[in-house]
Every structure is written in C-alpha cells, then in structure tokens.
Amino acid sequence: MRLDNQLWESKYHEAVERLTREEAQWRTAESLLRQLVGCLGRVAHGAHDQVDPHIERLSAALSGTMEPLALEPLVTELAEAIEGLGARPRGVNDERSIPITRPQRTEHGSSVQSSLSRLVDRIVILPRLADRANDLRHDVADAGDLVALAACGDRLADLVNEQRIGLQREIDALQAVLRHVTGRLDEMSQYMSRELADQSTGEANGQALDASVAHEMRLLGEAALEIDDMHELRERVNQSLETISLCFRDFRDREGIRLTAYRERAERMRLRIEQLETERNTLQRSLEREHELAQTDTMIGMPNRLAYEKRIEAAYESWQATMRPLSVAAIDIDHFKSINDTYGHTAGDAVLRIIGQALLKHIRPCDFVARYGGEEFIVIFDGADEAESLQVCERLRGKIQHLAFHASRQPVRVTASIGLTQFRPGDTPQSVFDRADLALYTAKNGGRNRCAVG
C-alpha cells in the first residue's frame, strides 16, 4: 500500500508539472496574440481620425502586462467607435469596411489573415472549447476585411485566456487532490507511528509483568530458606501467588484496553484505506478520460497535435537508444480553402473527417497518425526508413485521391501532398518536422498530389 500511494503521489506531481508547462505555453500564446492584435492595430491605424486614439490606447496597453479582463473595456470602446463610424476609411463616403483586396491593404491583410489562421491551427484546444475554436477557424477563413480579422483576433485572445484560466483551475484542483491524498498518507503514517508506540507499550507491559513475577519468585525463594514453620511458609506462598495473580489481572486489564483501542483504530484505518482506494480509482478514471480527451481531435475522432508531440518524444528517445529507422510525413489537403469557399465549411469538415479516418484505417499497425492542425496531418513511421515509408505515403496519397466526395450532389476531387523525411544523426523532433514541412512545400510547388522526400 505504501508503494502504491507513493506511485500515485508521483503521478499527481507529474500531472501538476504537466499542467504548469501547458499554462506556460498558453501564456506564450497569449503574448503572441497580444503582438498580433497590436499588429492589426498598426495596420488599421489611419482609417479614421476618431478611431485612431482608441487604437493607440489599445496598442499601448497590449505592449504592457495588463490582464485580459482589464483590456476588455478598451476593446469595447474600440468596437463601439468602429460601429458608430461605420468603419469608413478616411476620405471614403460609403460605409463599406476596409477590404483586404484593396491595393494598400492587400499585403498587410493577407499576412494578418494567414498568420491568424496558422495560429488558430497550431493551438491545442481543450475539448470543451473545440467547437468554438472550429467556428473561429471558419470565421478567420471567411474574414473579408481588417475589422473582421481584428474581431477574430480578439476572440482568439479570449479563447487562449479561457484555456489559461481553465488550466490554472485544473492545476488548483490537482493540487487540492494532492493535498488531500498527502493528508491521508500523513494520517496513515501517524497511525503506523501510534501502532509502533502501542507495540512498545505492550512490550513494556509484558516486561513489567515478567519483572513483577520474577521479583515475587525471588522473595518467595528467600522466604523458603528463612522460614522453618510450614504453616507460615504456606501463608507466604499464598501471599506471593495473590500478588502474582494481581499482576496478571492488571496486565490483562491494561492489554484489554490497549487491544480494544487498537481494534478501533484498525477499523477506522481500514475504512480510510477503502475510501482512499475508491477515491483513487475514481480519480484515475477521471484523469485517464481527461488525458484521452486532451489528446483527441474531437471533430475527426483521431489523435491531435498534443498526442503527436508525446508520441514523437517517446519515438525519439527509442531512436536515440537503438538507431532503429524512424520517419515522419506531413500530409496536407490540396486546395482545401477553395473547398471551403466553394462548398462551405460543413463540406470542408466532412472532407477532414473522411480523410482522417482513411489515414487511420490504411497506416500500418505500428505507425501513428494525428491531425496536426487545419488541413494538415502527420504520420510517424516507426521502424521504417525513407524507402519503405515512401511506399506507404504513395499508397495513402492514392487512397485519398480515390475517395468519393460529394457536395451539393456534385463529385468533388480531393488530393493531398506529402512531405517525408527520416531521422538522421543530430536530428531532433523539431528539425525533422521542419524538414518534412519543407518537403511538403516542395510537393506543393511541384504540382500537388505527390510525395516529396526531404
């Protein structure tokens, strides 16, 4: 039991450390979002004289350490100012928003939209926020002006902040559980200390009884040598036996009290242990479920980027120890934005689900596939070199090409490009991913619907 409790205490500590690392990642993401919203503000600066002061105040606040809740009034003021003015650019009389396609905004708008879209795709979203994240991803893709993109940036900042707060709550909850379990372990330790002390008391009582009996026997032996009268000797023997009997009764009474208290403590501890076992099993199931959800893309029903990162770290450690071949492939759906634009996001989501399930079905049993973000998937080929992995990639590409997609009762042709690379001496998971990503762009630039090796 002690080893079992130590194991769970260690697992609780590991969970708290993991959540602390994730919170740090979310703080980094929040910092990046602040920079992105600040960039949006600089791009929009100059659109209206009356809006510019609000943008300047918000930009100044974003550059500091102001908490998200404190930023909310500034964002509200800016939104009200834009709404009140109809977001008219300086010198323009109509009430259209600033279109991304205007020459002076094309470069900035496209860059901001692309950056925001990549940021949404790369963030690992908690399962309970997955639907909101998916809606935001669609809205970023549909945003037609800088005001809409700024609103999406605000929503993403809110989403990241909610995740950060949620992670902090999970950390607090786990710490509370750890304190609870630690308290129970301390209670058990105190119980064992009391039992050891009680055992010492029992041993002391036994030693006292032995000493008393030995003392009476010694006195009786001395009396037998000194007393000649048989009647007097008999009386002395009776007195000694009575004294010894009293010692035994006193010992029995003290031991009875001690054993009764021991049984009561043992029963209380048994109930405590049963309760702790129940709590542990409940917590274990809950943690396993949360762990599973955190590593699952809920829309597609397959592992997500967090699951990939954990899997690639384990595969990397194994590769370092054995140098067994290990390869990684990045898979991206060709012209996915045009599918969303032409047939709608519902059709795009259906394409993602069907391709994701096809990849799960057609990879080798020893391989691993996850949705990395957006329309990109990633595969780990464990024990396969580039040549063997390339054969699997070509098979996967062919399977995707021949999948039957229909939207609005019309067939939709869907293909994918794949970038593949193998771990080499000196590589890290990040360097291999970057190389696979570069190979993917090589496949894209080479005409799409093909595999490239990096």
Q: Would you give an account of this structure?
A:
The chain has a 5-stranded mixed β-sheet with strand order 4-5-3-8-9, with helices on both faces. It has a two-stranded antiparallel ribbon with strand order 1-2. A two-stranded antiparallel sheet has the order 6-7. It has 454 residues and is α+β, with helices and mostly antiparallel strands. Helices cover 72% and strands 9% of the residues. The chain has helices at 2-44, 52-62, 68-85, 103-122, 130-142, 146-226, 230-294, 305-322, 336-343, 345-362, 386-401, 429-445, and strands spanning 296-297, 302-303, 326-333, 368-373, 376-382, 405-407, 410-412, 416-422, 451-453. The chain has 3 domains: 2-176, no CATH class; 192-294; 298-453, Reverse transcriptase/Diguanylate cyclase domain (Alpha-Beta Plaits), CATH 3.30.70.
In short:
Keywords: Coiled coil. This protein is an alpha+beta fold and 454 residues long. The protein contains twelve helices and nine strands.
Q: Between the first and last Cα atoms, what is the distance in angstroms?
A: 52 Å
Question: How many β-strands, per DSSP?
Answer: 9
- CA-based gyration radius: 37 Å
Shape: elongated
The average pLDDT score comes to 76
Please outline the major beta sheet.
5 strands, mixed
- How many independent structural domains? 3
Taken in chain order, the helices and strands follow as: HHHHHHHEEHEHHEEHEEEHE
Which spans of ≥5 residues are poorly predicted at pLDDT below 50? 86-108
Multimeric state: single chain
Q: Kindly name the structural category.
A: alpha+beta
Q: What's the total helix number?
A: 12
